[in-house]
Amino acid sequence: MSDHSASTDHAPHDITGPTVSVVGSINLDMVARAPRLPLPGESVTDAQLAQHPGGKGANQALAARRLGARVVMHGGVGQDPEAKQALSLLRAAGIDLSGLKVFADRPTGLALIVVAENGDNQIVVAPGANRAFTREHLHLKPADAVICQMEIPRDTLVAVTEQCGDAFFCLNLSPVREVPQPVLDRADLIVVNEVDVAATEPLLAGYRGVLAITKAARGADLKRGGETVASAAAPKVKVVDTTGAGDAFTAALTLALLRGDDPAAALAYACAAGSCAAAAPGTQHSFPDPAAVAELMAGAG
């Protein structure tokens, strides 16, 4: 890879679903599976270490692809061996990487993740090249939907709103940071987890779009204008690893609303996708296809 070139990999022609542009982070996850999560200042031993592709942007891109979308990924990586690993599953899935920027002077983002036996996790991210992906590197193509997260510069998010046209725009408000007003005004869907709801309330006081609040094993709620319009329970699964479950949820909800599902049906579909991901080890390896989601929903019914 050079710092001026980008991959021209494209999705194969067997995918006929909607086109989704994902603008966000691309990381390599360093995952330590431990008996339990450490307390502050505590060391926990007997962990097993593995490396997996990750980053909320790349995760949501692959999740959307697995669920039938044609996906274009926009983001930054370093000119290092970690980039090849971080992009491996995106390439294998045929995701269009023409929106990729490779930086010679920045490392690929790294996430340090501890996963406990019960599936809970703790995550610390060193963003690296993700923070270097600024507005001049973004060139969106026409798409049916655009998905973003908060692991890229805020001005890049503003550039997304300037370039996305009339696409359905989903913002996954994670990690919680100040959101530029043009982004809030443009977002059709905002996804936030219940842990961050209190922190996001001041940011979203005037938001009039659809707000999804995820509640882990207890499902999720959809709100509009402060009123709950739908609630869904998460199908019961044996939780193996919750890392990436929220990313599967975000991609699934975007696609379900894009295809015209009513709020309750869309939310149930997204919760099932998230549960499928939580029931398998790893992050990107755990993302389901539509058949797996349908099977879980049928069993839950």
TrEMBL record:
One of its GO terms (molecular function) is metal ion binding. Gene3D superfamilies: 3.40.1190.20. Belongs to the carbohydrate kinase pfkB family. Belongs to the carbohydrate kinase PfkB family. Ribokinase subfamily. K(+) binds at residues 241, 243, 277, 280, 282, 286. Signal peptide: none annotated. This is Ribokinase. GO terms for biological process: D-ribose catabolic process. Keywords: ATP-binding, Carbohydrate metabolism, Cytoplasm, Kinase, Magnesium, Metal-binding, Nucleotide-binding, Potassium, Transferase. Homodimer. Pathway: Carbohydrate metabolism; D-ribose degradation; D-ribose 5-phosphate from beta-D-ribopyranose: step 2/2. Requires a divalent cation, most likely magnesium in vivo, as an electrophilic catalyst to aid phosphoryl group transfer. It is the chelate of the metal and the nucleotide that is the actual substrate. Catalyzes the phosphorylation of ribose at O-5 in a reaction requiring ATP and magnesium. The resulting D-ribose-5-phosphate can then be used either for sythesis of nucleotides, histidine, and tryptophan, or as a component of the pentose phosphate pathway. One of its GO terms (cellular component) is cytosol. Its EC number is 2.7.1.15. ATP binds at residues 193, 246-247. Substrate binds at residues 27-29, 55-59, 151, 247. It catalyses: D-ribose + ATP = D-ribose 5-phosphate + ADP + H(+). Its cofactor is Mg(2+). The keyword ATP-binding applies. The active site is at residue 247. Activated by a monovalent cation that binds near, but not in, the active site. The most likely occupant of the site in vivo is potassium. Ion binding induces a conformational change that may alter substrate affinity. Pfam families: PfkB. Residues 20-289 form the Carbohydrate kinase PfkB domain. It is found in: Cytoplasm. The keyword ATP-binding applies.
